[in-house]
Amino acid sequence: MARELLKGNVATAEAAIRAGVEAYFGYPITPQTELLEWFALRMPELGRTFLQAESELAAINMVYGAACTGARVMTSSSSPGVSLMMEGISYIAGTEVPVVLVDVMRGGPGLGNIAPAQGDYNQIVHGGGHGDYRPIVLAPASVQESIDLTVLAFDMAEKYRAIAIVLTDGSLGQMMEPAELPPMQPVFRRTPSWAVSGAEDRDRRILSSIYLNPEEEEVTNFRLLDRWNQIEANEVRYKEYNIEGAELVVVGFGTAGRVALSAVRAARAEGIPVGLIRPISLSPFPSARLRELADQARSMLVVEMNSGQMLEDVLMVTGGKVPVEFYGRMGGVVPFPDEIHAEIKRLSFEPLSFSENPRKSWMERLALARN
Amino acid sequence: MVVEIPAEVVYQRPDAFTDTVTSYCPGCTHGVAHRLVAEILDEMDLIENTIGVASVGCSVFAYNYFECDFVEAAHGRAPAMATGIKRVLPNRFVFTYQGDGDLASIGMGEIVHAAARGENITVIFINNANYGMTGGQMAPTTLPGQKTTSSPYGRDVEQMGFPIRMSEMLATLDGVGYVARRSLHDPKNIRLAKKSLRLAFETQARGIGFSLVELLSTCPTNWGMKPVESLHWLEEHMLPFFSLGEFKVNPALSQTPITRGRLALDAD
Question: CATH fold of A238-370, please?
């Protein structure tokens, strides 16, 4: 397959189609709508199911029903719509059926705006639905990675009977860049031993997330946790840049990680020993690798397009081994590489101290810069 | 001379029923509704070809009682879940079984849009004028003046609005193939209910669109009545407000005879 100039949302949808998605249910919301529109165009001509639901609530429950048959299914939305889906996500997790969701994040909270942001990190990574479950979360930083991780999300969801979320943002969804699509896979109906399809020549099957007896629910919680331990052992993904000999390690995912890379490269060119780790699987989180880097580095800088949601996880896994600082922009503002470059320079030349509260000191620096 | 009359079984447990102890209260008409559904699954030889969608409410355990595949939906979302199943398995028979809180309150959006799309599913809708499982709170179907645990002074329509007549409302939608309201308070009406359920299942079998049968039901426990009293209460109070009958019958339904035996559903 040749590289083509592709828009992120369209490429993500086409990647799912080529991965053999059999049914898509969704609802319009900016900056995600091109996914819905692409499925609307493509699915009927391929004889597959496309349905525009009456709400995100209905869309996720249609996906839930279709997933119970063993079919490869997905939905997509953007932040406010994903909030509405949280009920269904919890039921899907509790019923142990595989589903893929793409969240094209935008500024918030509330109606917010339609600009790229990363404010859904906590909601998605730490599970916004009720109860005890952990979703698989993959964060691309380019159109190519959006394609690759969408295909991977289906395989992982089905392998672990879990929900896999591709966490992208308005920038990655709307941008166009050269990328290569995978070859077309045929749709084949999986017939897993748990799927409902009509009890012909077999015992009936029931798919439910209800376990009225607390002991049985706990057994289910343990089963989910056992599966999660396998996911943590096998599915951690991250990418590193200039990490060799880096005394300052920048941590950023998705678009923030991509912007940070420009800053890291510029700083390296100036001779500053700085590297970048870009977590690709936000859940499972690359905790072990971050701990190793905390041993190697003199300091760390977490860069996000939110108020420091992943920062909490980095602080937790590095456990005070190394000073951790934070730089973020919020509300749909994408940082310029220069802003991160300035932070890298500051951390390279200023005496290092363990900030009591990296978020607070970042806010103070930002306030000074604004005056 | 002794004439031997061969014994004929005229009444038995439907094959579509599992051998399970009921979780419904004594005197509740859920059992009657379940039996009618099971009889029709038997008569149409559908049990191996059916996926049921249970909802949240007293019928949350409906999946325990039928010999077919079942899923359990979130509160109100059964029509959306049924849509997802039917769209990927169009040659399977898909039905939901929902109460009035589930269907007419929290699930109002899902039921209206499934009906409007003409989703080829069948909905069995139990209207017992209150929330049964949570202990008898006011439902969208609670009658004006009716006392419940969340309308202890009686439903004041000035404050709490009016009950909703779902069948009449859904009958206005073009996607609906069949919608009827029946009652389970006496044998004659139970027979009519079965006829309507059969027609609703036939609607799906023939691909005519969305079908729904609303069944007026009793809730002796939460109404605070003996079973027989509750049947009388239904007749005296619910029937004047919720009129019985068929509100929409697609003409295609009356032109073809009732299917006998196993259905020849379209292949994939």
Answer: Rossmann fold (3.40.50)
